[in-house]
Amino acid sequence: MSPLELRAFRDSDESVALRGEAALATSPAPFLLDYDDSQAFSTWVGKMAAYERGDVPEDRVRSSFLAACVDGTIVGRLSVRYELNDFLRDFGGHLGYAVLPEFRRRGYAVEILKAGIALLASHGISPVLITIRDDNLASLGVAERCGAVFESSVINPKGERMLRLWLT
C-alpha cells in the first residue's frame, strides 16, 4: 500500500470533496465539517484554515480538517481537535475520520486513525479520545485494530448511544 498523506483541503479539491459530501449525506457524520452549500467552496477552505489557526466560533476548538490522500487521490478525511470542550469531551472526542465509499475495505481507515493519533502525539496529546456510535461496527473494528480501550457509553443529544474509547 502506498503511504497515506494528510494535508489541508485546497480549492482544487472541490469536486471530490462535494462528491464525498453527497456520498456520505445519510451517514451520521458528514464528509465536510461545517460545510454550507450556499457558500463558495473556497470560503469553506478558508474557514478550515482559520479553525487550524484557532480562529473559531465560541462553540468550537482549534482543529485541523485534513484530506487523506494516497498517490495524490483523496480517499478520506480526518478531523483533529487539539482540545476538548464539554461537548467533545462527552460525545465527540479528539478525532473523527471517514473513508469515501469507493475506497473502503482497503485499510485506509486504520491508516487515517493511526495518522491522527500520531499527529496529536506530536502536539503532546495522549491518550486520544474517540467516540463511535454503537451501531457503527466498521468504525469500532478500526478503533480496535488501533488498540482502542473502551471507557463507557453515553447517549448523545440525538438519542444515539456513543461508545467512548481511548487510544495511545
Give a written overview of the molecule:
- The protein is of the alpha+beta class and 168 residues long.
- The chain has one domain: Aminopeptidase (3-Layer(aba) Sandwich), CATH 3.40.630.30.
- It has five helices and seven strands.
- The protein has helices at 14-23, 41-53, 86-92, 108-122, 137-145; strands at 4-8, 63-70, 73-81, 95-99, 128-133, 149-155, 161-167.
- It has a four-stranded antiparallel beta sheet with strand order 1-2-3-4, with helices on both faces.
- The longest helix has 15 residues, at 108-122.
- It starts with a strand and ends with a strand.
What are the main properties of this structure?
Aminopeptidase, 3-stranded antiparallel sheet, alpha+beta, 4-stranded antiparallel sheet, 28% strand, 168 residues
Classify the secondary structure makeup into a structural class.
Answer: alpha+beta
Rg on CA atoms, Å: 15 Å
CATH topology (fold) name: Aminopeptidase
The number of helical elements comes to 5
Q: Looking across the biggest beta sheet, what order are the strands in? A: 1-2-3-4
CATH superfamily: Gcn5-related N-acetyltransferase (GNAT)
Tell me how many strands there are. 7
Identify the overall geometry. globular
The average pLDDT score comes to: 94
CATH class: Alpha Beta
The CATH architecture name reads 3-Layer(aba) Sandwich
> β content, as a range?
25-35%
**Poorly predicted parts:** none
Task: Sketch the major β-sheet.
Answer: 4 strands, antiparallel
Helix-strand topology string: EHHEEHEHEHEE
Helix content: 25-40%
Distance from N terminus to C terminus (CA atoms, Å) equals 24 Å
Q: How many structural domains are formed by the residues?
A: 1
